[in-house]
Amino acid sequence: MLKLFMSAQPVSPLQYGLGAVLSATKASGALPQVGDEYDFYRSFPGFQEFCQSQGDQLLHCMSQIMQYHGCRSLMRDRNKLTGLEERFDLVVDSNDAILERAGILLDEADGVNRSQQPVMPAGFQPPKIVVSSWNRKSSGSGSRAETFRLLHAKNIARPQLKFREKVDNSNTPFIPKIFIKPNAVKPLPSSLISNLNLIPSSPMRPEDLDVPAALADFIHQQRTQKPVEDMFAHPYQYELDHLTTPESLLSKPEPQMYKPIAETNCSFIDSLEDLVALNEKLCSLSEFAVDLEHHSYRSFLGLTSLMQISTREEDFIIDTLELRSEMYILNEAFTDPSIVKVFHGADSDIEWLQRDFGLYVVNLFDTHQASRALNLARHSLDHLLKHFCTVDSDKRYQLADWRIRPLPDEMVQYARTDTHYLLYIYDCVKTQLLETNHGQPGLLQSVWNKSKDISLKKYVKPIFTEESYLELQRKQKRSLNTQQHTAFRLLFAWRNKLARQEDESTGYVLPTHMMIKISEELPREPQGIIACCNPVPPLVRQQINELHSLVQQAREMPLLKVRKEKEVTLFGPHDTSRVSESDLPHFSPDGEFNEPETKNDQESLSVAHMKARRIIEAFENPFRMYLPTSDVHVNENAKFDPSSKIFEVIKKFHRFIPIQNYLFKAKRKAKADAKEQTKKVAGNGVSTFSKYTLCKVKHLTVL
């Protein structure tokens, strides 16, 4: 019934359009790639006709779109010699016009008028809502329309500049930031403590001055040959391995209804005193819910911008950008095995907590894993809120810039919703897990075990190597020559290096599609690189000369076609198109295996012998796939052993040899008889016997 109810819900045009675009993108990825694969499919008439019909439909659709936007549309005109170039120019002009119009409409919807001054971030000015056709949301029949509001931070100061501990973007492994281990059963390794300079470490050498502080002790241990396994291990590995789920957490709970969000107190934590008070309050509870808001576009590794915590009575929002260096205080509550920490989809949250704050979670329950165990229709938090709480979540600010300070009220309410109902959902899914398994705790225990596995995840820092670009290149499924391949490799390395230096994401420095465009085009001038980027990233414009030198360096490479990685070739038993004749075995007319003849032996053969050899080679051996190559040793005794495969193959091949020898000898005898009889004929006349003989020779030749 639930599936029928969900299927009966109306689908918005935006959702339908997004689904259509995703389906088309997925289908286009399965099409044959340009090259040998496409040429192979192109050889089939059915494929040609299908491509022709689909191409006509696409051209017709493009013409309609161009006509709708007032552009010239002659996409199906194929009579002119320069028709292809003209159609390409039409598409480029139409794209420019359509994108320009879309940009103007988006600016108007966002409240930006190009004739006015630039608009400051939304958090610092009175809200201005512009209603348009695309951002009107109907909340049901007969109700007034709601509006979306785009929130972004154009001129916000980078929060990384205020961090006391600078972000480490170096190309080195990640070392846990923890230096105090609350609720420890196994003590924290001394190597992690000395990394934070709490214990006097080894004296620094001059060549170590540029090394990050987190690696100083690691280098010293490498020099002194001390074990360093504990430095990269999970600090709470031992505690999680020995964690057992108590019976109280495996019994059927009584769901405790959540308080209305309007009647629940919400506290914003942005000072050390408030954070300490919150930690003391959490330590006195038996469970609480946690969620994070993350930002990744203007940071290389990413930033955890906000943390939401909800108890049964109140909600808390923590400014993690302001309290980044003090967040480790919450380890006392987060690692307490007697307190349940409820997350939804904690795979990324666990890694973000380790990377930014040195926080670890013991006794985690993931409602996403519970939803999968229950085989619900969908496993998102949006669906769980609708299913258990009949609450329609507002995902308008899911992609907002969470670095904005102060936070607008709309974003605060959105952040509260992610955790306010989570404890009630936790009670409901536990009850359903027990009811589904007839009261037995096996299914519920499996969810606890999977949640513990998520807690054991370790953050792995992205490490750049000389072959890092290969994975991205395989995903693109592009056939590049040596120059394009070199350009892609150099641009990938340049992008990674600059992103680490400027603490920007690789997508901000140079998006992947622009990098591929530059690699394929290989512009000769800097203006060509600018033309490949629309819009032009700021760092590309700043570093245009360096980019141009990299492209020129790639153009100096010899132009060769690069073989694709892991190329798969189809094989058939009688397909010798990919095998050279020198790799095939050689046979004599009597069926014996012969060694390949040398160049001197071939030169000593007469014209008649060479012609006879070509005739013999015209007969394709059907058993060639079973025969060894010329460089494989064949035992002479195996040729006469009836139980061997070689003997069986030779025996079958011998059946064709007598027929071949008979035709060859009969043809040679007929030619000799014809020559002898023609000598006996005098004058210009030709005897009847010689005519009969010539006809016989022609007949044998045809055979």
Q: Can you give a write-up of this model?
A:
With 703 residues, this protein is of the alpha/beta class. The chain is 46% helix and 6% strand. The chain has 29 helices and 10 strands. It has helices spanning 2-8, 13-29, 36-42, 45-68, 83-109, 190-195, 216-224, 229-232, 237-241, 272-283, 331-334, 347-357, 367-373, 381-389, 409-420, 422-436, 442-455, 468-476, 482-502, 506-509, 512-521, 526-531, 538-542, 544-555, 599-604, 607-618, 645-654, 657-680, 688-702; strands at 136-138, 145-147, 265-269, 287-295, 303-310, 314-318, 340-343, 364-366, 586-587, 593-594. The chain has a 6-stranded mixed sheet with strand order 3-6-5-4-7-8, with helices on both faces. Strands 1-2 form a two-stranded antiparallel sheet. A two-stranded antiparallel sheet has the order 9-10. The longest helix is centred in the first third of the chain and has 27 residues, at 83-109. It is extended and about 125 Å long. The protein starts with a helix and ends with a helix.
Brief summary:
The chain is an alpha/beta fold. The protein has 29 helices and 10 strands.
